[in-house]
Amino acid sequence: MLQGRVNSPRLFDIASDQIRALRSRMLMGSILRGEVKGVLIRMGVSMRQFGMEPAALAERLTDEQSAVSLNYPTNLTKVWEDDFDLLSRHGAEVCEATLVAYGQA
How far is CA 1 from CA 6, 53, 86, in A? Predict the structure, then answer.
C-alpha cells in the first residue's frame, strides 16, 4: 500500500489523459455541430482501422511502427533523424487516411 504517498508521475499521466480526452470531445462536438471546420488526427492509429485493401496496407507503416509513433517520448531530448522521419511519415499517413475516410480530401 502507498501509505498516503501518491505516485506523482502516474497521477500526472492520468490527469493529462483525462484533459486530452475532454479537449478531444469538446473539439469533436464543435466539428459535428458545424461550429468549426476541421478533423481530429490521432497519432498511433493503425491504417487497418480505415479498412484499407491489403495492397495499400503493404505500402504503409506497420502496426508496430504506428505504436512506436504513439509511444514516442515527449521530452526535451534530441529527436534523431530516423525517429523524426518515422513520426513525420506516420502523421502524414494518418492525416491522409483520415481525410479520405471522412470525405475531406
Answer: 10, 50, 40
Q: Please, which residues have CB within 8 angstroms of residue 66's CB and are 6 or more apart in sequence?
A: 44, 45, 46, 47, 90
What are the tens digits of pLDDT across the range 21-67? 999 899 999 999 999 988 888 888 888 888 888 999 999 999 999 99
CA–CA distance, 35 with 1 (Å, rounded to integer): 48
> Please, are residues 105 and 96 in contact by the beta-carbon 8 Å criterion?
yes
Chain centroid, CA 16 distance in Å: 14
Tell if the pTM clears 0.85, that is, is over it. no
